[in-house]
Structures are given as C-alpha cells and as structure tokens.
C-alpha cells in the first residue's frame, strides 16, 4: 500500500479510528493478557497478549501506513527487532552489513549470533562496488543503516537494494535516524524497514520499542511467527506511548532538522579546528546522495574535536544545555561519546579503522532554541581550544 495522503495527516490519523464501543478518539490501553474464545480450535483475532493486543495492533497499523506498507510487527526494543529479523534466517547464513552501524547491532552480530554460525561481512556501504564484492553464495540479507551511526554516512539505497534483489538477497534499511518523514526505504526498493521506535517515533525519552515493517505477506508472516514464538513484544502501555508519539512526529522532525541545519552551519563557520559532519552541508561527501533520497537531512550532527579523552571530558564539563546520555531523537538535546558509549562494544582497532575517533561526539539536536544550543556548543568548544591549535577550516557551511 503506497501512502496517498500527506505524511502529516497520516501521523495524526493512522491507527486512530474511534473506539467501536465508546467512540473514544484516543485508543484505550488494553491490559488484558487473555481473551475469551467462543469455541476450541478457532483462530480469533485476539487470544493471548503475547500473540496480539488491540493497542499494539493500532501501533502496528500506524507504523505500516507511515512507511507505505501493509505489515508491521513491533517489539520491546530496537535490538529485539534486530534479534527477531536474524531469527528468520537459516543457520550459517551470511549478512553483508554497513561497517559503521549501531554498536548494539555489531555486538549482536559478532558476540552473540556468531556463536550460532551467523557470518557477517562489514563493508563501506557508500561504495556500491565494495558491496557487490562482499556478496557470497550464502548471503541472505543486506543490512543498511543510513544515515549511519554515528558518522552520518549516506548509503545509496536504491542502487544497493537493486543489487541485492538481482542476487535474490533480502534488504533491510534501518530508518531510525531518518524516520519515515524524511526517507522512504520501501519506495526505494528495500524489502524491510527497521526502527528503534525508542528514538524519534517516541520522541519523549520515556519508552523503549522496535519495529519491522514490510510489504511482502510471506516475509511478514515469518517475522510475526518469531514475534510470537520469541515473545519480545511491547507492553500495551508502551504501545500507547509510541502511538501518541507518532501524532506529533512530523512536527518534531521538522524542528529537529531546522535546528540541526543551523547548528551544523554555525559550527562549521565558527568552530575552529572542529570537523562537522552533517549530510545537509555541501562539504559532506555524500551530500548529493542524501538530497536524492531524503526530504531533509535529519536532527543529528556529529563533530570531531581535536585531542582525545581529556578534551572530551573538558567538553562535558563545559556544556550547559547538552546532556551527556545514551539515545537520541527526544525532545531534549543530548550528546554522546560513541567510543565509550554506543560503540564501546566495537573493537578499538575497528572503531579507528572506520573513523570513530576518541574525539568523535554525536549530537542529538532537541527542541530547545537553536541559537541557545549553538552558543552553548561554541562556548564548550572554546573551553578546549587552548589545548589544541588547529588551523581554521577554509570551507564554509553551505546548506542546500
């Protein structure tokens, strides 16, 4: 099902039909763990809370509609969704995956699923030929994350998904950073969309969740089987919070993008010696690819400050409006240090190889005033400037 309405309308209305018994406009939270059945052997819509729940069904309906699909399955966290998808593969399957993806995925692939025969080749997914060369006879899944975490590299979704389809390989795109508001992976050829709904879908830092969305009925049935068999489902209360978050997703994402663009431009122009990574800057190596497949450039900005841990610690003490914390996509501006936080499980040599240096800082731009946030960052950067003197960058930020 391709979306025909504006996404703002979909956010407000998807999965939001009035309750049949009361005409309530806000769906009730159904806490029942079991449901009465008419006779043995039938297949009722709801029978047991792990298998299905009315509140969860509303959430899944809304997420599917947002991604322009027919099917969605939700989970208790983003990593539970990752785990469920791998469960659909056969033993000794091979995955080709973006090399700079979320550290939790890397940990699952290399420290957990490798014990059961899963093989993963990590590759620079911005390079089509590198991806082509990584396919093996037992490759079953192409795993893409774009923009990537934390380096905000942009993968050409359409080209790579076409490459996978030629080889009979399913493709999944982690759309957590972009959200369905900014990027439409299924329309670009992906088979599956992955979300950590903890992030922008929730938007309020108060609920964990994950989702897998697809348009293929057989694939959806395999995912649904794992969802029920493994049981890592969201609670009805969590589903209700996520459904509430969807109602304002379009407004929040618009503000996140506007502020992130302003902050990235300001930092690249005024923060001496600091590398600024943001797909909306023309200095970004994949800017044109981002323009071709995203409607805006997201609410995350990554910077590399000169120096190492001592300078990062000084940055932490100097910021006033940015909270050092895991996660992203919430109403409050957060920053994290990937080498010691989100990507601590990635081997140090691998982090260095792909560019996650000790001075790498990921900024999740919140809903505060963008000018206040930029000023706070410039003051924090100035506080560490005395320890390193790097020539001022000559390229100026130009947003498309």
Q: What is the CATH class name of the largest domain?
A: Alpha Beta
Instruction: Give the end-to-end Cα distance, rounded to a whole number of Å.
Output: 31 Å
How much of the sequence lies in strands comes to 5-15%
Order of helices and strands: HHEHEHEHEHEHEEHHHEHEHEEHEH
* Radius of gyration, taken over Cα atoms and rounded to an integer in Å: 21 Å
Largest sheet: 7 strands, mixed
Helix/strand structural class: alpha/beta
Descriptive report:
- With 400 residues, the protein is α/β, with parallel strands linked by helices.
- The chain has two domains: 7-247, Type I PLP-dependent aspartate aminotransferase-like (Major domain) (Aspartate Aminotransferase, domain 2); 250-387, Aspartate Aminotransferase, domain 1 (Alpha-Beta Complex).
- Helices cover 37% and strands 14% of the residues.
- It has 14 helices and twelve strands.
- The protein has helices spanning 7-13, 54-66, 78-87, 103-112, 128-134, 157-166, 179-182, 217-230, 236-247, 249-270, 287-293, 309-318, 348-354, 370-384, and strands at residues 71-75, 94-98, 119-123, 139-145, 170-174, 192-195, 210-214, 275-277, 300-304, 323-324, 334-336, 360-364.
- The strands form two sheets. Strands 1-7-6-5-4-2-3 form a seven-stranded mixed beta sheet, sandwiched between helices. The protein has a five-stranded mixed beta sheet with strand order 8-9-12-11-10.
- Strand 5 (170-174), helix 7 and strand 6 (192-195) form a beta-alpha-beta unit.
- The two termini are 31 Å apart.
- Mean pLDDT is 93; it is low at 390-398.
């Amino acid at each position: 099902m391709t979306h025909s309405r504006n996404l703002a309308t979909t956010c407000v209305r998807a999965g939001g039909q009035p309750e049949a018994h009361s005409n309530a406009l806000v769906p009730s939270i159904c806490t029942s763990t079991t449901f009465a059945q008419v006779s043995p052997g039938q297949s009722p819509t709801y029978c047991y809370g792990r298998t299905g729940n009315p509140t969860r069904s509303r959430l899944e309906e809304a997420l599917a509609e947002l991604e322009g699909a027919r099917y969605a399955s939700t989970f208790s966290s983003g990593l539970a969704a990752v785990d469920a998808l791998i469960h659909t593969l056969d033993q000794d399957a091979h995955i080709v995956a973006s090399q700079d993806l979320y550290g939790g995925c890397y940990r699952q692939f290399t420290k957990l699923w490798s014990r059961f025969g899963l093989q993963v080749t990590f590759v620079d997914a911005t390079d089509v030929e590198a991806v082509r060369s990584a396919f093996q006879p037992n490759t079953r899944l192409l795993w893409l994350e774009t923009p990537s975490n934390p380096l905000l590299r942009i993968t050409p979704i359409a080209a790579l998904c076409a490459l996978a389809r030629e080889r009979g390989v399913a493709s999944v795109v982690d759309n957590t950073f972009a959200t369905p508001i900014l990027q439409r992976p299924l329309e670009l050829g992906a088979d599956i969309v992955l979300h950590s709904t903890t992030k922008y879908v929730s938007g309020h830092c108060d609920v964990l969740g994950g989702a897998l969305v697809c348009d293929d009925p057989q694939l959806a049935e395999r995912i649904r089987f794992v969802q029920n068999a493994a049981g890592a489902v969201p609670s009805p209360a969590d589903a209700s919070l996520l459904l509430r978050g969807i109602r304002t997703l379009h407004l929040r994402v618009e503000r996140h993008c506007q502020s992130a663009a302003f902050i990235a431009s300001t930092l690249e122009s005024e923060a001496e010696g600091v590398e600024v990574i943001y797909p909306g800057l023309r200095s970004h190596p994949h800017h044109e690819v981002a323009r071709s497949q995203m409607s805006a450039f997201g609410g995350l900005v990554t910077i590399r400050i000169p120096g190492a841990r001592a300078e990062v610690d000084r940055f932490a003490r100097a910021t006033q409006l940015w909270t050092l914390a895991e996660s992203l996509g919430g109403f409050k501006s957060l920053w994290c240090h990937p080498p010691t936080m989100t990507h601590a499980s990635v081997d140090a040599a691998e982090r260095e190889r792909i560019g996650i240096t000790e001075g790498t800082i990921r900024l999740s731009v919140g809903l505060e005033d963008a000018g206040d946030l930029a000023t706070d960052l410039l003051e924090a950067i100035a506080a560490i400037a005395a320890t390193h003197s790097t020539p001022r960058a000559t390229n100026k930020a130009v947003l498309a």
